[in-house]
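The instructor's notes for this session suggest beginning with a concrete chain rather than abstract definitions. Hand out the sequence below and ask the class to guess, before any prediction is shown, which regions might be ordered.
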Amino acid sequence: MLLPALTLMLAACGGSSSSNSDNDTAIEPGVFSLEEATVADIHAAFRGELLQDNGEPLNCEALANLYIQRIFAYDKTPQPSGGLAIRSVLAINPLAIEQAKALDALYARDGGIGDRPIHCMPILLKDNYDTYDYPSTQGSYSMLGHQAGVDANSVAGLRKAGGLILGKANQDEFAFWTTGFSNRGIQVTNPYNTSQSPAGSSSGTGAAIAANFALGGTGSDTCQSIRHPSSVNGLVGIRPSLGVISQHGIFPLSHQRDTGGPMTRTVSDAALMLDAMAGVDFRDPKTLAFPSELRPDSYTDFLDRGQHGLQGKNIGIVRQLGDNSEAAGTDAQGALIAEALSTMEALGATVYDVYLPGFESKGAGSRHYDMNEYFVTFEAEGGNSPRACVSSLAVALAGGDVAHGRDICEGLDGIIETGRVGLRTAPLLATVAVDDLNRAPTEEELADIIAMREYTTQQMDTLLDENGAQVFDNDGNPVRLDALILSPGPTGGRTCDFGSTTQMGSIVVPVGVDDSVGVPRGMEIFVRQFDEGTGIGIAYDYEQASQHRRAPELVASPLSGNETISGFNASVQQALMDAAAVAPEDLPLEYYLEILQGIGG
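After discussion, reveal the predicted structure:
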């Protein structure tokens, strides 16, 4: 029998396990392993090249059940590493098994995956992605019952490409925090050490994919919320340039900074997900800046180490970012990133120091404007929700004059008036409510963002040293950088504004483990606007050479055998009520009245 690893290699290379061209000897199937599985692995299993450990063939329905049973066994179970449960999955889609059966029917009809490159890829969505078949709540009790009429554009793309939406992952409430705390699932923890943070706000996605609860997941990144969770959970995460993926159907924090993106365990799976999620969407004008004719046929084309790898690349390590002189990482993470740079040099890259003293963080518009604008589109597309705006009182104080949105938002139609926002989040939501609900981005604000992008791009096009002098290579040619490297957190100071301000793309890959806490660390590969392919090529070459990804060691519950999807979902919804003295609905109104008084003066 062939070793499973060899069978996987044959499958990845498009080889057949049915015969050997030299001697026509039949090759026995290998064993499919759910842990650390990739899209290539499950497709090999569907073709019969890999079998389950019980000798049975794999199909989509069986795969979905395997992941669901794994969630039951591990997600709510206290782990020896830190004594806490992971609590990464907010809800399993009750329709997931039926949808898996439908994918099996398509596979039988087409005699294979057909035109579905991620056929039956189980995916967990961050809870701020709209889906037509299950509510999204942004991690908040105030949004219970918020049911979209249509999928978010990126979710529709995932389904079209064959993705199986397994359920919703937990998140920091309304994406305000970066610690993994929602008002619905209590605290998400890091599966490598459950006493450590999984980072956020895409905390549930990061922890779930690291723990092998799905093949891939989605995050949304306003300032580090894909990059940091990917780093500390040993994942590959792509925060693409604004406009690569539509913002449609993703509850916003700031439309001039927000973007969705994939989070996976491998670069190849991230590229497949990016293909499915990306595209021009008339509902998001930012996507029009990257027209179809300029987009790659497939981001998987960059998974070619010879053509798109590190050989001959000029890589910049960011030594100064505005007033931050630690952007390359500190402590263990800084050391791991330095080792990664040595690996890159061994793979043929040349590394240069980069200084960006002129960088400043920039934003535009108001969060109040962006959130209310989301509600207008949501309702126009058939969404049904008990909420209609951030604050009904704010709408009343504006005389009902919401230039871009719904002018009927009364009483408990407002999120903040429900009294069901978490006590930590309520003050932050209040700062949104007091902002001008009609303040769209100004021309000056947008010009400042463009200026920061042009400044960064210019430094990459013509490298200057610490003293502002032009840098030349060994042949006397001006240095043009292909990508920049920096720390995505937790060390290195605040670096998340770099991509968020410039609206340029990044991909995070693992660089090793911080042994002092037993948690992975990653590096951020930063590229020019709409040049995600270059980042994928660099990340893939480094990933294949370094192989830093490792699964966490987890202990299963012995009591998970009789769990059901409905029972699991109900227990998660009950979680905060069990931990608090009273249900969220009964929290003291005085706290919220104080906030409302601040809004109304």
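Then share the key points. Confidence is low (pLDDT under 50) at residues 1-22, 578-585. The radius of gyration is 24 Å.
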